[in-house]
From TrEMBL:
The keyword Oxidoreductase appears for this protein: yes
Identification of the protein by name: (S)-mandelate dehydrogenase
Annotated organism of origin: Pigmentiphaga litoralis
Similarity annotation: Belongs to the FMN-dependent alpha-hydroxy acid dehydrogenase family.
EC number, as in UniProt: 1.1.99.31
InterPro entries: Aldolase_TIM, Alpha-hydoxy_acid_DH_FMN, FMN-dep_DH, FMN_HAD, FMN_hydac_DH_AS
Length: 389
């Protein structure tokens, strides 16, 4: 654990994961679509905003607790849904769920997770959210919704930014396919990480147990992202969302919203919130960075529904900036994935500890005693300031 004790920022975990994982797997996690411009912009955009801190507020250690969909949480953070985590850490889904419970924050299980709804239901004591991809097979989709309800998942997230898989060229180049298979092109990469390869041989390649009914179709050998996308409903629309609304009586969030008019439509469809997200830059390249979409959506919905955010968060101060711009909470993806790949439970736990400490420190330095005190007045849009000068 000596390495973990020498991690001081969440990016350190990316470096450890890169050393531990075969290149095709690391690239599948780290990569984005096409030229990866949106992937890069998701992070860079945080530098567009600078702090204008309040001083001498006398408020002491900040209170990080926040209400997420009406329930108190340890901090305004949620574990983002991620598929294929088992390739980097066999029990990664359960471990992320357990770490989330330790920190009193919700964990989201992906439709394409390596662990079933039932396994998570039995092993994660805290808050569980389930992420649903619209599937062509409506009966299977309805079945997933029923299983999530039966296993104690409290919130359903419908992800709407994957009408087709993004063109992820790292996966094409690396011959990264699902189900897992060795090919002449990728064999050397897997052999170069013998500990990983042995583990995979011992446990067998992870599957997608929530979609096991689709196994015959998904056995087609093709590159990872497109093969998953092939099962999705490419024609999913607002009528489909209305159908899901009827099937799920708990909180329903729509993930992958970047436009105020779409956010407005989710309200009319009876949803309980949106997640401003571009899927971590993995779908439509040269789409705007997620943070740049946030303020306009918050302004449009004007408090009628909570607006969550994800994409590019690597510092506690990034979380604080998203909250200042009106997010009700943020989802964190890759940092936690790298954390669990680098050091299992301890690794993911350390990532959340670092983010929590940085968030607290930022709030104290800005004179914000609670998350509700984080407002737009604490930020200066440097791009706007430069244009005005
Ligand atoms: C490896 C990987 C798998 C993902 N799988 C899913 C998924 O199954 N469903 C989904 O809605 N989003 C998925 N996402 C997107 C994340 O939920 C989230 O939107 C994104 O990772 C946020 O950006 P960040 O990684 O910079 O935090 C995935 C992201 C990664 C990196």
């Amino acid at each position: 654990m000596a390495t973990l004790n020498r991690t001081f920022r969440v990016d350190d975990f990316e470096a450890i994961a890169r050393r531990r994982l075969p290149k095709p797997i690391f690239d599948f996690y780290a990569g984005g679509a096409e030229d990866e411009r949106t992937l890069a912009l998701n992070r860079d955009v945080f530098q567009r905003f600078g702090w204008t801190p309040r001083v001498m507020t006398g408020s002491g250690t900040p209170d990080l607790r926040a209400a997420l969909l009406g329930r108190d949480a340890g901090m305004p953070v949620i574990v983002a849904p991620m598929g294929a985590v088992g390739y980097g850490c066999i029990e990664g889904d359960q471990l992320l769920g357990q770490v989330a419970s330790d920190f009193d924050i919700p964990y989201t299980l992906s439709t394409t997770a390596s662990t079933s709804i039932e396994q998570i239901g039995a092993s994660v004591p805290g808050r569980k959210w389930f992420q649903l991809y619209p599937l062509k097979d409506r009966a299977l989709m309805k079945g997933l919704i029923g299983r999530a309800r039966a296993c104690g998942f409290e919130t359903l997230i419908v992800t709407v930014d994957v009408p087709v898989g993004g063109k992820r060229e790292r996966d094409l180049r690396n011959d990264c396919s699902m189900p897992f298979r060795f090919t002449a092109r990728n064999l050397a990469a897997f052999a170069s990480r013998p500990a990983w390869a042995l583990n995979l041989l011992r446990h067998g390649p992870p599957g997608m147990p929530n979609l096991s009914a689709l196994a015959p179709a998904s056995k087609r050998a093709s590159s990872l992202a497109p093969s998953v996308g092939a099962e999705f409903d490419h024609a999913f629309g607002w009528a489909g969302l209305a159908e899901i609304r009827k099937q799920w009586d708990g909180p329903l969030l729509v993930k992958g919203i970047l436009r105020p008019d779409d956010a407005e439509r989710t309200l009319h469809a009876g949803c309980d919130g949106v997640i401003v997200s571009n899927h971590g830059g993995r779908q439509l390249d040269t789409g705007i960075p997620a943070l740049a979409a946030l303020a306009a959506i918050v302004s449009r919905v004007d408090g009628r529904t909570p607006v969550f955010f994800d994409g590019g968060i690597r510092r506690g101060s990034d979380i604080a900036k998203a909250l200042c711009l009106g997010a009700a909470g943020v989802l964190v993806g890759r940092p936690l994935l790298y954390g669990v790949c680098a050091g299992g439970h301890a690794g993911a736990s350390r990532v959340l500890t670092i983010l929590r400490d940085e968030l607290s420190r930022t709030m104290q330095l800005c004179g914000a005693p609670s998350v509700n005190a984080l407002g737009e007045d604490l930020l200066r849009d440097l791009a706007g300031a430069a244009a005005a000068a």
